[in-house]
């Protein structure tokens, strides 16, 4: 069971906006640790998508955006494209462990 | 460019041992925390361990504490994971990743992964 909670799946039509939630607790996101997001295309290693809640590495389209509030965070994908079909994972840090923690992952399907 | 390449995966019997390696290039290896992360077939990501740039600070997830050992050789730009007392639920793709900017930051880049299969 993952420390951070994500919905197993979300879907949307091309061009639509989808959001993925990531809920933690008082020792991770709620303790002030930043949230990071990864995209994993089928058969490949995860790739950094968003870091420090809302920052995009160079090369990541601005269709991807992140936010954080309290013990939760969200990833939004606007203008959904077929190439966005992938698994998405949130990640933060848990001071109890201490170590990094991941969400269970969310599969995004483009209808 | 910044790159990580894992090796050492394979088929091992339950109770056996295996040593994974991760070769780093394109950055000053000794300046960064490094981590091992795994992904069981069809499952999510699980952080396993991290090690500081000097090697003096190490932490493990409870699931591998006492069985796995993370280490590094800075002159060789290499990260290692010694795995022992392997169980069926250790079967996974194992990734090495660089921690940015510190142990409690994000992971970038990731290696391509190396597959560990547990079977008698």
Short key terms for the protein model shown above:
heterodimer; A: 111 residues; mainly beta; six-stranded mixed beta sheet; three-stranded antiparallel beta sheet; 9 strands; 0% helix; B: 120 residues; seven-stranded mixed beta sheet; 52% strand
Topology:
The complex is a heterodimer of chains A (111) and B (120).
Chain A lengths: L8 E4 L5 E6 L12 E5 L6 E4 L13 E6 L2 E6 L8 E9 L4 E4 L3 E5 L1
Parallel strand pairs in A: 1-9
Antiparallel strand pairs in A: 2-6, 3-4, 3-7, 5-6, 7-8, 7-9
Chain B lengths: L2 E5 L2 E3 L5 E8 L8 E6 L5 E7 L6 E3 L7 E6 L4 E6 L8 E9 L5 E5 L3 E5 L2
Parallel strand pairs in B: 2-11
Antiparallel strand pairs in B: 1-3, 3-8, 4-5, 4-9, 5-6, 7-8, 9-10, 9-11
Write a structural description.
The complex is a heterodimer of chains A (111) and B (120). In chain A, 0% of the residues lie in helices and 44% in strands. Chain A is built from no helices and nine strands. The N and C termini of chain A lie far apart (29 Å). Chain B is mainly β and 120 residues long. In chain B, the strands form two sheets. In chain B, strands 2, 4, 5, 6, 9, 10 and 11 form a seven-stranded mixed beta sheet that branches. Helices cover 0% and strands 52% of the residues of chain B. The A-B interface holds A 2, 33-34, 36, 38, 44-48, 51-52, 57, 89, 91, 93, 97-105 and B 35, 37, 44-47, 49-50, 59-62, 95, 100, 103-113.
Please tally the helical runs of chain A, counting DSSP H or I stretches of 4 or more residues.
0
- Average residue pLDDT of chain B: 97
Number of strands of chain B: 11
User: Major sheet of chain A: size, sense and barrel closure?
Assistant: 6 strands, mixed
Number of helical segments of chain B? 0
Strand content of chain B: over 45%
Radius of gyration of chain A, whole Å: 13 Å
Radius of gyration of chain B: 13 Å
Unreliable sequence segments of chain A: none
Which percent range describes the beta-strand content of chain A?
35-45%
Question: Can you count the beta strands of chain A?
Answer: 9
The CA-CA distance between the termini of chain B, in Å, is 40 Å
In quaternary terms, these chains amount to heterodimer
Structural class of chain A: mainly beta
**N- and C-termini, Cα separation of chain A:** 29 Å
Principal-axes geometry of chain B comes out as globular
Structural class of chain B: mainly beta
């Amino acid at each position: 069971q993952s420390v951070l909670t994500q919905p197993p799946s979300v879907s949307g039509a091309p061009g639509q906006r989808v959001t993925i939630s990531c809920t933690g607790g008082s020792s991770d996101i709620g303790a002030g640790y930043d949230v990071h997001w990864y995209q994993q295309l089928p058969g490949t290693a995860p790739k950094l998508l968003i870091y420090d809640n809302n920052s995009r590495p160079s090369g990541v389209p601005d269709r991807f955006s992140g936010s954080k509030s309290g013990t939760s965070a969200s990833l939004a994908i606007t203008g959904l494209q077929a190439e966005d079909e992938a698994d998405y994972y949130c990640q933060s840090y848990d001071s109890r462990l201490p170590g990094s923690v991941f969400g269970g992952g969310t599969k995004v399907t483009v209808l | 460019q910044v790159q990580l390449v894992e090796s050492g995966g394979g088929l091992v019997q339950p109770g056996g041992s295996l040593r994974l390696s991760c070769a780093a290039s394109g950055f000053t290896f000794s300046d960064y925390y490094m981590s091992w992360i795994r992904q069981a077939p069809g499952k999510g990501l699980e952080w396993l361990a991290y090690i500081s740039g000097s090697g003096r600070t190490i932490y493990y997830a409870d699931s591998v504490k006492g069985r796995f050992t993370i280490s590094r050789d800075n002159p060789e730009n290499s990260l290692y994971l010694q795995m022992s007392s392997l169980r069926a639920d250790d079967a996974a793709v194992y990734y090495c990743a660089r921690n940015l900017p510190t142990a409690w930051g994000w992971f970038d880049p990731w290696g391509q992964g190396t597959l560990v299969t547990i079977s008698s």
